[in-house]
Amino acid sequence: QVVDARLVSVFDARELELVIAGTAEIDLSDWRSNTEYRGGYHDSHIVIRWFWAAVERFNNEQRLRLLQFVTGTSSIPYEGFASLRGSNGPRRFCVEKWGKITSLPRAHTCFNRLDLPPYPSFSMLYEKMLTAVEETSTFGLE
């Protein structure tokens, strides 16, 4: 009602949110220190080390897209990643071991959870994450 729909129709939902809210530099150390792991993953697990190496390699826009892919929003709480919220209150960013190495990562935005397959190499993890983050425009339902 405020803006002519033709002017914003060139943007997908992620891009429009970035246009409206702007971009923020992501503090990777804050993100990492406020992430939990499940399914056998832990901070020193090789797949998790590759995950953070991939996130470090991403530019800020790709990091924001990853954040949006997993949480449903590209905005970071004012208080930082410790204050992320899920559908029913405070919910930390979570990476859980799930799936086959042929699968793309999947996200559960209500729970701020990334289901990450146990990829056998950094290059495979990086490519699959990039595909999931950059090419995904719909939500999968279970």
From TrEMBL:
It catalyses: S-ubiquitinyl-[E2 ubiquitin-conjugating enzyme]-L-cysteine + [acceptor protein]-L-lysine = [E2 ubiquitin-conjugating enzyme]-L-cysteine + N(6)-ubiquitinyl-[acceptor protein]-L-lysine. Pfam families: HECT (PF00632). The active site is at C110. GO terms for molecular function: ligase activity. Pathway: Protein modification; protein ubiquitination. It comes from the Eukaryota. The keyword Ligase applies. Residues 1-142 form the HECT domain. Its EC number is 2.3.2.26. Keywords: Ligase, Transferase, Ubl conjugation pathway. InterPro entries: E3_ubiq-protein_ligase, HECT_dom, Hect_E3_ubiquitin_ligase. Transmembrane segments: none annotated. PANTHER family: E3 UBIQUITIN-PROTEIN LIGASE HECW2, HECT DOMAIN UBIQUITIN-PROTEIN LIGASE. This is HECT-type E3 ubiquitin transferase. It comes from Polyodon spathula (North American paddlefish). The gene is Hecw2_0.
